[in-house]
Amino acid sequence: MPAAGNNYPLLQRDPASPIVLAADGSVVTTAEFLCQLSSLAKQLPDADYVLNLCASRYHFLLCFCAALLRGQSNLLPPGRGEGLQRELCASYPGAYIVHDGAPVIADVRSQDIRPLLAVAAGPNRPQVNDVPVLPGDQLAAIVFTSGSTGTPSAIKKSWHTFYASTQLNASYMLGEKPHYSMLATVPGQHMYGLETSILLPLLNSLTVFDGQPLFPRDVQQALQLLPPPRVLVSSPVHLRALLSSGLNFPKADIVLSATAPLDPALGKQVEDQFAASMCEIYGCSEAGSLAYRNPAVDEDWQLFSAFNFSADDNLLHAAHLAEPVALQDRLEFTAGKRFRLAGRASDMVNIAGKRGSLQQLNQVLLQADGVLDAAVFIVPPELAGARHDAARGDCLAALVVGEPADRRAIAAHLRRFVDPALVPRHINFVHALPRSETGKLPRDRLLAEFVRQRKGG
Amino acid sequence: MSEQSPQEKELAELIVSCLDLDEDVSADEIDPQEALFGEGLGLDSIDALEIALAVSQKYGVEMQAEDDGVKEAFASLRTLCEFIHQSKAA
Fold first, then answer.
1. Are A353 and A260 spatial neighbours (Cβ–Cβ below 8 Å)?
2. A124 three-class SS
3. What are the tens digits of pLDDT across the range A81-132?
4. What band does A146 get if pLDDT is binned at 50, 70 and 90?
5. In angstroms, what separates the C-alpha of A52 from chain B's closest C-alpha?
6. Which architecture, in CATH terms, is B6-89?
7. What domains lie within chain A, and their CATH numbers?
8. Helical H segments across A204-315, by residue range
9. Disulfide engineering: A15 pairs with which of A31, A94, A96, A113, CB 3.0-4.6 Å?
10. Do B23 and A454 touch (CB under 8 A)?
11. Which residues in chain B land under pLDDT 50?
Protein backbone atom coordinates (compact mmCIF):
# COMPACT_ATOMS: atom_id res chain seq x y z
CA MET A 1 0.00 0.00 0.00
CA PRO A 2 1.50 3.35 -1.00
CA ALA A 3 2.45 5.51 1.97
CA ALA A 4 2.70 9.26 2.20
CA GLY A 5 6.42 9.31 2.98
CA ASN A 6 7.56 7.56 -0.22
CA ASN A 7 7.95 8.78 -3.78
CA TYR A 8 5.70 7.61 -6.61
CA PRO A 9 6.02 7.99 -10.36
CA LEU A 10 3.76 10.42 -12.20
CA LEU A 11 3.31 7.87 -14.91
CA GLN A 12 3.66 4.13 -15.51
CA ARG A 13 3.47 3.41 -19.20
CA ASP A 14 5.42 2.14 -22.16
CA PRO A 15 7.03 5.25 -23.80
CA ALA A 16 5.81 4.19 -27.24
CA SER A 17 2.20 3.64 -26.18
CA PRO A 18 -0.40 6.22 -27.23
CA ILE A 19 -1.84 8.04 -24.21
CA VAL A 20 -4.33 10.24 -26.09
CA LEU A 21 -6.29 9.84 -29.31
CA ALA A 22 -7.76 13.02 -30.81
CA ALA A 23 -10.99 13.29 -32.80
CA ASP A 24 -8.95 13.67 -36.01
CA GLY A 25 -7.39 10.26 -35.40
CA SER A 26 -3.96 11.58 -34.37
CA VAL A 27 -2.30 10.16 -31.28
CA VAL A 28 0.09 11.47 -28.66
CA THR A 29 2.55 8.86 -27.45
CA THR A 30 3.72 8.70 -23.87
CA ALA A 31 7.15 9.96 -24.95
CA GLU A 32 5.63 12.93 -26.82
CA PHE A 33 3.41 13.66 -23.85
CA LEU A 34 6.44 13.75 -21.52
CA CYS A 35 8.20 16.21 -23.86
CA GLN A 36 5.21 18.53 -24.03
CA LEU A 37 4.72 18.22 -20.32
CA SER A 38 8.29 19.16 -19.47
CA SER A 39 8.17 22.15 -21.77
CA LEU A 40 4.78 23.35 -20.50
CA ALA A 41 5.80 22.97 -16.86
CA LYS A 42 8.76 25.30 -17.40
CA GLN A 43 6.49 27.98 -18.86
CA LEU A 44 3.91 28.07 -16.11
CA PRO A 45 4.10 30.98 -13.66
CA ASP A 46 5.26 30.55 -10.07
CA ALA A 47 2.38 29.95 -7.68
CA ASP A 48 1.12 27.53 -5.08
CA TYR A 49 -2.25 26.91 -6.72
CA VAL A 50 -3.64 26.68 -10.21
CA LEU A 51 -7.28 26.65 -11.25
CA ASN A 52 -7.47 24.24 -14.20
CA LEU A 53 -10.38 25.16 -16.50
CA CYS A 54 -9.16 23.42 -19.67
CA ALA A 55 -12.02 21.96 -21.71
CA SER A 56 -9.95 19.54 -23.81
CA ARG A 57 -9.19 16.39 -21.84
CA TYR A 58 -5.62 16.37 -23.15
CA HIS A 59 -5.05 20.00 -22.21
CA PHE A 60 -6.51 19.31 -18.79
CA LEU A 61 -4.22 16.28 -18.38
CA LEU A 62 -1.16 18.28 -19.47
CA CYS A 63 -1.90 21.17 -17.12
CA PHE A 64 -2.78 18.84 -14.27
CA CYS A 65 0.60 17.10 -14.61
CA ALA A 66 2.58 20.26 -15.35
CA ALA A 67 1.29 21.75 -12.09
CA LEU A 68 2.40 18.60 -10.25
CA LEU A 69 5.91 18.88 -11.71
CA ARG A 70 6.07 22.45 -10.43
CA GLY A 71 4.86 21.44 -6.97
CA GLN A 72 1.61 23.36 -7.51
CA SER A 73 -1.79 22.12 -6.39
CA ASN A 74 -4.65 21.77 -8.87
CA LEU A 75 -7.86 23.45 -7.73
CA LEU A 76 -10.78 21.47 -9.14
CA PRO A 77 -14.04 23.39 -8.74
CA PRO A 78 -17.47 21.82 -9.27
CA GLY A 79 -18.18 24.25 -12.13
CA ARG A 80 -16.70 27.01 -14.26
CA GLY A 81 -18.98 29.89 -13.22
CA GLU A 82 -17.37 33.30 -12.73
CA GLY A 83 -18.59 33.51 -9.14
CA LEU A 84 -16.82 30.24 -8.37
CA GLN A 85 -13.61 31.36 -10.10
CA ARG A 86 -13.57 34.58 -8.11
CA GLU A 87 -14.35 32.83 -4.82
CA LEU A 88 -11.60 30.24 -5.28
CA CYS A 89 -8.96 32.73 -6.38
CA ALA A 90 -9.78 34.86 -3.34
CA SER A 91 -9.48 31.88 -0.99
CA TYR A 92 -6.17 30.74 -2.50
CA PRO A 93 -4.04 33.89 -2.84
CA GLY A 94 -1.69 33.88 -5.78
CA ALA A 95 -3.71 31.23 -7.61
CA TYR A 96 -3.79 31.58 -11.39
CA ILE A 97 -6.10 30.16 -14.02
CA VAL A 98 -5.10 27.91 -16.92
CA HIS A 99 -7.60 27.45 -19.74
CA ASP A 100 -7.86 26.66 -23.43
CA GLY A 101 -10.29 29.34 -24.49
CA ALA A 102 -12.92 29.28 -21.73
CA PRO A 103 -14.27 32.60 -20.48
CA VAL A 104 -12.22 33.61 -17.44
CA ILE A 105 -12.53 36.46 -14.96
CA ALA A 106 -10.40 39.47 -15.81
CA ASP A 107 -8.97 40.40 -12.42
CA VAL A 108 -6.96 37.20 -11.85
CA ARG A 109 -3.78 36.04 -13.57
CA SER A 110 -4.70 33.62 -16.31
CA GLN A 111 -2.88 31.71 -19.00
CA ASP A 112 -4.27 30.34 -22.24
CA ILE A 113 -2.06 27.28 -22.66
CA ARG A 114 -2.57 26.79 -26.39
CA PRO A 115 0.24 29.15 -27.50
CA LEU A 116 2.56 27.49 -24.96
CA LEU A 117 1.92 24.10 -26.54
CA ALA A 118 2.77 25.42 -29.98
CA VAL A 119 6.22 26.20 -28.61
CA ALA A 120 6.41 22.80 -26.96
CA ALA A 121 5.70 21.04 -30.24
CA GLY A 122 8.35 23.04 -32.10
CA PRO A 123 11.73 21.69 -33.28
CA ASN A 124 13.53 22.80 -30.10
CA ARG A 125 11.42 20.74 -27.81
CA PRO A 126 13.34 19.06 -25.00
CA GLN A 127 13.99 15.34 -24.97
CA VAL A 128 12.59 13.68 -21.90
CA ASN A 129 13.53 10.16 -21.03
CA ASP A 130 13.09 10.04 -17.32
CA VAL A 131 9.67 9.65 -15.83
CA PRO A 132 9.07 12.30 -13.18
CA VAL A 133 8.69 11.09 -9.61
CA LEU A 134 6.58 12.93 -7.05
CA PRO A 135 6.72 12.92 -3.26
CA GLY A 136 3.76 10.91 -1.95
CA ASP A 137 2.73 13.69 0.42
CA GLN A 138 2.66 16.37 -2.30
CA LEU A 139 -0.73 18.10 -2.33
CA ALA A 140 -1.77 17.17 -5.88
CA ALA A 141 -5.28 18.57 -5.96
CA ILE A 142 -7.96 20.21 -3.93
CA VAL A 143 -11.42 19.04 -4.90
CA PHE A 144 -14.31 21.26 -3.96
CA THR A 145 -17.69 19.97 -3.13
CA SER A 146 -20.65 21.22 -1.19
CA GLY A 147 -20.27 20.34 2.45
CA SER A 148 -23.26 19.35 4.52
CA THR A 149 -22.87 22.52 6.58
CA GLY A 150 -23.51 24.69 3.54
CA THR A 151 -20.00 26.05 3.07
CA PRO A 152 -18.13 24.37 0.21
CA SER A 153 -15.57 21.96 1.60
CA ALA A 154 -12.07 21.60 0.24
CA ILE A 155 -10.91 18.00 0.01
CA LYS A 156 -7.16 17.65 -0.12
CA LYS A 157 -5.72 14.90 -2.31
CA SER A 158 -2.09 13.95 -2.00
CA TRP A 159 -0.29 12.16 -4.82
CA HIS A 160 -0.04 8.93 -2.79
CA THR A 161 -3.85 8.96 -2.33
CA PHE A 162 -4.31 9.27 -6.10
CA TYR A 163 -1.62 6.66 -6.75
CA ALA A 164 -3.19 4.12 -4.38
CA SER A 165 -6.79 4.75 -5.44
CA THR A 166 -5.80 4.43 -9.10
CA GLN A 167 -4.24 1.01 -8.47
CA LEU A 168 -7.41 -0.01 -6.71
CA ASN A 169 -9.66 1.40 -9.46
CA ALA A 170 -7.63 -0.32 -12.17
CA SER A 171 -8.11 -3.71 -10.54
CA TYR A 172 -11.88 -3.28 -10.04
CA MET A 173 -12.75 -1.33 -13.19
CA LEU A 174 -10.38 -2.84 -15.75
CA GLY A 175 -9.54 -6.28 -14.42
CA GLU A 176 -6.60 -8.00 -16.07
CA LYS A 177 -6.59 -6.51 -19.57
CA PRO A 178 -4.13 -3.64 -19.63
CA HIS A 179 -4.51 -2.08 -23.08
CA TYR A 180 -7.93 -0.52 -23.21
CA SER A 181 -8.89 2.55 -25.14
CA MET A 182 -11.21 4.76 -23.17
CA LEU A 183 -14.00 7.12 -24.08
CA ALA A 184 -15.50 9.31 -21.35
CA THR A 185 -18.70 11.31 -21.63
CA VAL A 186 -17.97 12.93 -18.26
CA PRO A 187 -15.49 15.80 -17.69
CA GLY A 188 -12.02 15.24 -16.24
CA GLN A 189 -12.55 17.89 -13.55
CA HIS A 190 -15.22 15.86 -11.82
CA MET A 191 -13.81 13.36 -9.27
CA TYR A 192 -15.23 10.33 -11.13
CA GLY A 193 -13.94 11.67 -14.46
CA LEU A 194 -10.57 12.50 -12.90
CA GLU A 195 -10.10 9.02 -11.43
CA THR A 196 -11.09 7.31 -14.67
CA SER A 197 -10.16 9.49 -17.65
CA ILE A 198 -7.07 11.23 -16.23
CA LEU A 199 -5.49 9.05 -13.53
CA LEU A 200 -6.15 5.59 -15.02
CA PRO A 201 -4.36 6.52 -18.29
CA LEU A 202 -1.37 7.93 -16.39
CA LEU A 203 -0.79 4.76 -14.41
CA ASN A 204 -1.94 2.12 -16.93
CA SER A 205 -1.36 1.60 -20.62
CA LEU A 206 -4.71 3.11 -21.58
CA THR A 207 -5.38 5.39 -24.52
CA VAL A 208 -7.96 8.02 -23.68
CA PHE A 209 -10.07 9.93 -26.21
CA ASP A 210 -9.39 13.66 -26.10
CA GLY A 211 -12.97 14.81 -26.52
CA GLN A 212 -16.02 14.63 -24.33
CA PRO A 213 -18.70 13.67 -26.85
CA LEU A 214 -22.24 14.50 -25.89
CA PHE A 215 -24.55 13.54 -28.73
CA PRO A 216 -25.12 9.83 -29.49
CA ARG A 217 -23.73 10.13 -33.04
CA ASP A 218 -20.52 11.67 -31.68
CA VAL A 219 -20.14 8.87 -29.13
CA GLN A 220 -20.69 6.31 -31.88
CA GLN A 221 -18.02 7.88 -34.12
CA ALA A 222 -15.54 8.27 -31.29
CA LEU A 223 -15.97 4.62 -30.34
CA GLN A 224 -15.39 3.60 -33.96
CA LEU A 225 -12.16 5.58 -33.92
CA LEU A 226 -10.87 3.86 -30.79
CA PRO A 227 -9.21 0.47 -31.22
CA PRO A 228 -10.73 -2.37 -29.18
CA PRO A 229 -10.85 -3.42 -26.40
CA ARG A 230 -12.76 -0.36 -25.27
CA VAL A 231 -14.06 1.05 -22.04
CA LEU A 232 -16.86 3.62 -21.98
CA VAL A 233 -16.97 5.90 -18.93
CA SER A 234 -20.40 7.38 -18.60
CA SER A 235 -23.39 8.17 -16.42
CA PRO A 236 -27.04 7.03 -16.36
CA VAL A 237 -28.32 10.16 -18.08
CA HIS A 238 -25.82 9.82 -20.94
CA LEU A 239 -26.36 6.07 -21.28
CA ARG A 240 -30.12 6.50 -21.47
CA ALA A 241 -29.69 9.09 -24.23
CA LEU A 242 -27.36 6.76 -26.15
CA LEU A 243 -29.89 3.93 -26.01
CA SER A 244 -32.91 6.04 -26.92
CA SER A 245 -31.10 7.31 -30.02
CA GLY A 246 -31.73 3.96 -31.70
CA LEU A 247 -28.18 3.96 -33.08
CA ASN A 248 -25.97 0.89 -33.09
CA PHE A 249 -22.72 1.22 -31.23
CA PRO A 250 -19.40 -0.58 -31.61
CA LYS A 251 -18.58 -3.06 -28.88
CA ALA A 252 -17.45 -1.56 -25.60
CA ASP A 253 -15.96 -4.31 -23.47
CA ILE A 254 -16.62 -2.43 -20.24
CA VAL A 255 -19.16 0.29 -19.54
CA LEU A 256 -18.69 2.21 -16.29
CA SER A 257 -21.50 4.26 -14.84
CA ALA A 258 -21.50 6.57 -11.84
CA THR A 259 -22.97 9.86 -10.52
CA ALA A 260 -26.56 8.57 -10.04
CA PRO A 261 -28.23 5.19 -9.52
CA LEU A 262 -28.46 3.19 -12.73
CA ASP A 263 -31.82 1.60 -13.41
CA PRO A 264 -31.24 -2.21 -13.61
CA ALA A 265 -33.28 -2.48 -16.83
CA LEU A 266 -31.17 0.27 -18.40
CA GLY A 267 -28.02 -1.51 -17.21
CA LYS A 268 -29.17 -4.68 -18.98
CA GLN A 269 -29.95 -2.78 -22.20
CA VAL A 270 -26.50 -1.21 -22.09
CA GLU A 271 -24.92 -4.65 -21.77
CA ASP A 272 -26.89 -5.89 -24.77
CA GLN A 273 -26.33 -2.84 -26.98
CA PHE A 274 -22.60 -2.54 -26.34
CA ALA A 275 -21.96 -6.28 -25.83
CA ALA A 276 -20.35 -5.00 -22.66
CA SER A 277 -19.94 -5.95 -19.09
CA MET A 278 -21.63 -3.29 -17.02
CA CYS A 279 -19.89 -1.97 -13.94
CA GLU A 280 -21.69 0.58 -11.81
CA ILE A 281 -19.44 2.55 -9.48
CA TYR A 282 -20.33 4.13 -6.17
CA GLY A 283 -18.11 6.84 -4.80
CA CYS A 284 -17.84 10.35 -3.47
CA SER A 285 -15.40 13.22 -3.81
CA GLU A 286 -13.95 12.59 -0.34
CA ALA A 287 -13.12 8.90 -0.85
CA GLY A 288 -13.14 8.49 -4.64
CA SER A 289 -14.62 5.34 -6.14
CA LEU A 290 -15.28 2.89 -3.34
CA ALA A 291 -17.69 0.14 -4.44
CA TYR A 292 -19.10 -1.53 -7.55
CA ARG A 293 -21.96 -3.72 -8.72
CA ASN A 294 -23.67 -4.90 -11.86
CA PRO A 295 -27.17 -3.49 -11.33
CA ALA A 296 -28.77 -6.09 -13.62
CA VAL A 297 -27.45 -8.87 -11.38
CA ASP A 298 -26.85 -7.40 -7.93
CA GLU A 299 -28.75 -5.13 -5.65
CA ASP A 300 -25.78 -5.24 -3.28
CA TRP A 301 -22.67 -3.14 -3.71
CA GLN A 302 -19.25 -4.66 -3.14
CA LEU A 303 -16.91 -2.40 -1.18
CA PHE A 304 -13.40 -2.19 -2.69
CA SER A 305 -11.00 -4.25 -0.56
CA ALA A 306 -8.94 -1.27 0.64
CA PHE A 307 -11.93 0.30 2.41
CA ASN A 308 -13.41 -0.59 5.78
CA PHE A 309 -16.66 0.76 7.07
CA SER A 310 -17.08 1.17 10.77
CA ALA A 311 -20.68 1.01 11.94
CA ASP A 312 -19.69 2.49 15.31
CA ASP A 313 -18.88 5.93 13.94
CA ASN A 314 -20.46 5.56 10.45
CA LEU A 315 -17.12 6.37 8.90
CA LEU A 316 -15.31 4.90 5.95
CA HIS A 317 -11.66 4.12 6.63
CA ALA A 318 -8.78 3.42 4.24
CA ALA A 319 -5.01 3.60 4.62
CA HIS A 320 -4.66 5.80 1.53
CA LEU A 321 -7.13 8.44 2.71
CA ALA A 322 -5.94 11.41 4.74
CA GLU A 323 -8.82 10.97 7.16
CA PRO A 324 -11.94 8.81 7.61
CA VAL A 325 -14.88 9.86 5.46
CA ALA A 326 -18.50 10.43 6.49
CA LEU A 327 -20.71 9.31 3.60
CA GLN A 328 -23.82 11.15 2.39
CA ASP A 329 -25.77 7.90 2.16
CA ARG A 330 -26.60 5.40 4.86
CA LEU A 331 -24.96 2.04 4.21
CA GLU A 332 -26.65 -1.16 5.32
CA PHE A 333 -24.28 -4.14 5.25
CA THR A 334 -25.78 -7.45 4.22
CA ALA A 335 -22.71 -9.71 4.40
CA GLY A 336 -18.99 -9.04 4.68
CA LYS A 337 -18.21 -6.08 2.46
CA ARG A 338 -21.55 -6.16 0.66
CA PHE A 339 -23.97 -3.35 1.33
CA ARG A 340 -27.13 -1.59 0.18
CA LEU A 341 -27.87 2.09 0.12
CA ALA A 342 -30.55 2.87 2.69
CA GLY A 343 -31.43 6.50 2.13
CA ARG A 344 -29.50 9.70 2.51
CA ALA A 345 -27.80 10.69 5.73
CA SER A 346 -27.71 14.42 5.09
CA ASP A 347 -29.29 17.29 3.17
CA MET A 348 -27.18 16.63 0.09
CA VAL A 349 -28.74 16.52 -3.35
CA ASN A 350 -27.26 14.92 -6.42
CA ILE A 351 -28.23 15.98 -9.91
CA ALA A 352 -26.41 14.78 -13.00
CA GLY A 353 -23.33 14.05 -10.89
CA LYS A 354 -23.28 17.52 -9.35
CA ARG A 355 -23.61 17.54 -5.62
CA GLY A 356 -24.96 20.36 -3.52
CA SER A 357 -26.44 20.90 -0.12
CA LEU A 358 -29.97 22.22 0.21
CA GLN A 359 -28.76 24.57 2.91
CA GLN A 360 -26.10 26.06 0.65
CA LEU A 361 -28.53 26.45 -2.26
CA ASN A 362 -30.93 28.13 0.11
CA GLN A 363 -28.27 30.56 1.31
CA VAL A 364 -27.31 31.50 -2.25
CA LEU A 365 -30.97 31.95 -3.16
CA LEU A 366 -31.56 34.29 -0.20
CA GLN A 367 -28.77 36.55 -1.48
CA ALA A 368 -30.56 37.17 -4.78
CA ASP A 369 -31.91 40.69 -5.32
CA GLY A 370 -35.39 41.15 -3.94
CA VAL A 371 -35.63 37.73 -2.30
CA LEU A 372 -37.05 38.02 1.22
CA ASP A 373 -37.53 34.38 2.11
CA ALA A 374 -37.01 31.14 0.25
CA ALA A 375 -36.95 27.39 0.61
CA VAL A 376 -35.24 24.87 -1.67
CA PHE A 377 -36.39 21.28 -1.35
CA ILE A 378 -36.37 17.92 -3.09
CA VAL A 379 -39.56 16.89 -4.83
CA PRO A 380 -40.21 13.14 -4.59
CA PRO A 381 -40.35 11.38 -7.99
CA GLU A 382 -44.13 10.82 -7.79
CA LEU A 383 -44.69 14.60 -7.62
CA ALA A 384 -41.93 15.61 -10.01
CA GLY A 385 -44.05 15.22 -13.13
CA ALA A 386 -44.38 12.41 -15.61
CA ARG A 387 -41.38 13.52 -17.63
CA HIS A 388 -38.97 13.91 -14.71
CA ASP A 389 -35.88 12.00 -15.63
CA ALA A 390 -34.80 9.73 -12.77
CA ALA A 391 -31.45 9.12 -14.46
CA ARG A 392 -30.68 12.76 -13.90
CA GLY A 393 -31.06 12.50 -10.13
CA ASP A 394 -33.07 14.54 -7.67
CA CYS A 395 -35.73 17.02 -8.75
CA LEU A 396 -35.37 20.38 -6.98
CA ALA A 397 -37.98 23.03 -6.40
CA ALA A 398 -37.93 26.41 -4.69
CA LEU A 399 -40.62 28.53 -3.13
CA VAL A 400 -39.66 32.19 -3.07
CA VAL A 401 -41.08 35.25 -1.34
CA GLY A 402 -39.95 38.46 -2.98
CA GLU A 403 -40.29 41.23 -5.52
CA PRO A 404 -39.95 41.31 -8.44
CA ALA A 405 -41.22 37.81 -9.21
CA ASP A 406 -38.54 37.30 -11.82
CA ARG A 407 -37.81 33.59 -12.13
CA ARG A 408 -35.08 34.08 -14.73
CA ALA A 409 -33.21 36.69 -12.69
CA ILE A 410 -33.19 34.31 -9.74
CA ALA A 411 -32.01 31.39 -11.86
CA ALA A 412 -29.27 33.60 -13.34
CA HIS A 413 -28.17 34.61 -9.83
CA LEU A 414 -27.97 30.94 -8.76
CA ARG A 415 -25.95 29.99 -11.83
CA ARG A 416 -23.27 32.49 -10.87
CA PHE A 417 -22.55 30.47 -7.72
CA VAL A 418 -23.68 26.90 -8.29
CA ASP A 419 -23.63 24.46 -11.16
CA PRO A 420 -26.54 24.97 -13.62
CA ALA A 421 -27.71 21.41 -12.92
CA LEU A 422 -28.40 22.40 -9.31
CA VAL A 423 -30.62 25.37 -10.19
CA PRO A 424 -34.15 24.30 -9.12
CA ARG A 425 -36.19 23.26 -12.12
CA HIS A 426 -39.34 24.66 -10.52
CA ILE A 427 -39.24 28.13 -8.97
CA ASN A 428 -42.57 29.41 -7.68
CA PHE A 429 -43.38 32.72 -6.02
CA VAL A 430 -45.56 32.74 -2.94
CA HIS A 431 -46.80 35.45 -0.54
CA ALA A 432 -45.38 33.60 2.45
CA LEU A 433 -43.63 30.30 3.06
CA PRO A 434 -45.80 27.68 4.77
CA ARG A 435 -44.00 27.98 8.10
CA SER A 436 -45.26 26.30 11.24
CA GLU A 437 -45.97 28.28 14.42
CA THR A 438 -42.39 27.71 15.52
CA GLY A 439 -41.10 29.10 12.24
CA LYS A 440 -40.02 25.72 10.93
CA LEU A 441 -40.69 24.57 7.39
CA PRO A 442 -42.12 21.07 7.57
CA ARG A 443 -41.43 19.14 4.40
CA ASP A 444 -45.06 18.05 4.00
CA ARG A 445 -46.20 21.69 4.06
CA LEU A 446 -43.61 22.65 1.44
CA LEU A 447 -44.71 19.80 -0.80
CA ALA A 448 -48.40 20.66 -0.34
CA GLU A 449 -47.68 24.26 -1.36
CA PHE A 450 -45.62 23.01 -4.30
CA VAL A 451 -48.52 20.85 -5.50
CA ARG A 452 -50.96 23.77 -5.08
CA GLN A 453 -48.65 26.05 -7.13
CA ARG A 454 -48.25 23.47 -9.88
CA LYS A 455 -52.00 23.19 -10.17
CA GLY A 456 -52.05 26.92 -10.77
CA GLY A 457 -53.41 27.70 -7.32
CA MET B 1 -39.30 39.97 -28.01
CA SER B 2 -39.56 39.19 -31.69
CA GLU B 3 -42.39 37.09 -33.04
CA GLN B 4 -42.10 33.30 -33.34
CA SER B 5 -42.60 31.87 -36.82
CA PRO B 6 -44.91 28.82 -37.05
CA GLN B 7 -41.83 26.55 -37.31
CA GLU B 8 -40.25 28.23 -34.31
CA LYS B 9 -43.47 27.86 -32.34
CA GLU B 10 -43.54 24.14 -33.11
CA LEU B 11 -39.92 23.74 -32.01
CA ALA B 12 -40.51 25.81 -28.85
CA GLU B 13 -43.36 23.46 -27.95
CA LEU B 14 -41.10 20.46 -28.50
CA ILE B 15 -38.38 21.94 -26.24
CA VAL B 16 -40.78 22.87 -23.48
CA SER B 17 -42.39 19.46 -23.60
CA CYS B 18 -39.19 17.37 -23.74
CA LEU B 19 -37.63 19.31 -20.88
CA ASP B 20 -40.83 19.37 -18.82
CA LEU B 21 -40.65 23.16 -18.59
CA ASP B 22 -44.29 23.79 -19.34
CA GLU B 23 -45.32 24.90 -15.89
CA ASP B 24 -42.43 27.35 -15.61
CA VAL B 25 -41.99 28.58 -19.15
CA SER B 26 -44.65 28.38 -21.80
CA ALA B 27 -43.64 27.75 -25.40
CA ASP B 28 -44.78 31.17 -26.60
CA GLU B 29 -42.66 32.85 -23.87
CA ILE B 30 -39.41 31.76 -25.54
CA ASP B 31 -37.93 34.69 -27.41
CA PRO B 32 -36.62 33.27 -30.70
CA GLN B 33 -33.47 35.39 -30.37
CA GLU B 34 -32.78 34.79 -26.71
CA ALA B 35 -29.94 32.50 -25.60
CA LEU B 36 -31.16 28.97 -24.83
CA PHE B 37 -28.16 28.27 -22.62
CA GLY B 38 -26.32 30.33 -20.04
CA GLU B 39 -28.05 33.56 -19.18
CA GLY B 40 -31.21 33.15 -21.24
CA LEU B 41 -33.30 30.07 -20.58
CA GLY B 42 -30.33 28.71 -18.65
CA LEU B 43 -30.38 25.18 -20.00
CA ASP B 44 -27.39 22.88 -19.41
CA SER B 45 -25.55 20.32 -21.52
CA ILE B 46 -27.88 17.50 -20.53
CA ASP B 47 -30.79 19.60 -21.72
CA ALA B 48 -28.96 19.95 -25.06
CA LEU B 49 -28.79 16.18 -25.20
CA GLU B 50 -32.53 15.88 -24.51
CA ILE B 51 -33.32 18.46 -27.18
CA ALA B 52 -31.08 16.70 -29.71
CA LEU B 53 -32.90 13.41 -29.05
CA ALA B 54 -36.33 14.97 -29.40
CA VAL B 55 -35.22 16.74 -32.60
CA SER B 56 -33.92 13.51 -34.12
CA GLN B 57 -37.16 11.73 -33.26
CA LYS B 58 -39.46 14.46 -34.57
CA TYR B 59 -37.52 15.83 -37.54
CA GLY B 60 -35.15 12.98 -38.32
CA VAL B 61 -32.22 15.39 -38.00
CA GLU B 62 -29.21 13.90 -36.25
CA MET B 63 -27.19 16.46 -34.29
CA GLN B 64 -23.45 16.07 -33.92
CA ALA B 65 -20.92 18.28 -32.20
CA GLU B 66 -18.48 17.48 -35.02
CA ASP B 67 -20.77 19.10 -37.57
CA ASP B 68 -20.02 22.66 -38.44
CA GLY B 69 -22.66 24.85 -36.98
CA VAL B 70 -24.13 22.60 -34.29
CA LYS B 71 -22.68 24.69 -31.50
CA GLU B 72 -23.98 27.83 -33.17
CA ALA B 73 -27.31 26.10 -33.77
CA PHE B 74 -27.95 25.88 -30.05
CA ALA B 75 -27.49 29.63 -29.64
CA SER B 76 -31.21 30.43 -29.80
CA LEU B 77 -34.57 29.04 -30.81
CA ARG B 78 -34.22 30.79 -34.17
CA THR B 79 -30.76 29.40 -34.99
CA LEU B 80 -31.80 25.91 -33.89
CA CYS B 81 -34.91 26.09 -36.06
CA GLU B 82 -32.87 27.26 -39.07
CA PHE B 83 -30.34 24.48 -38.52
CA ILE B 84 -33.05 21.80 -38.40
CA HIS B 85 -34.86 22.97 -41.50
CA GLN B 86 -31.65 23.45 -43.48
CA SER B 87 -30.48 19.96 -42.49
CA LYS B 88 -33.86 18.51 -43.46
CA ALA B 89 -33.69 20.19 -46.83
CA ALA B 90 -30.11 19.04 -47.46
1. yes
2. coil
3. 787 788 889 999 999 999 998 888 888 999 999 999 876 666 666 666 688 9
4. low
5. 20
6. Orthogonal Bundle (1.10)
7. 7-344 (3.40.50.12780), 348-454 (3.30.300.30)
8. 216-225, 236-244, 264-274
9. A31
10. yes
11. none
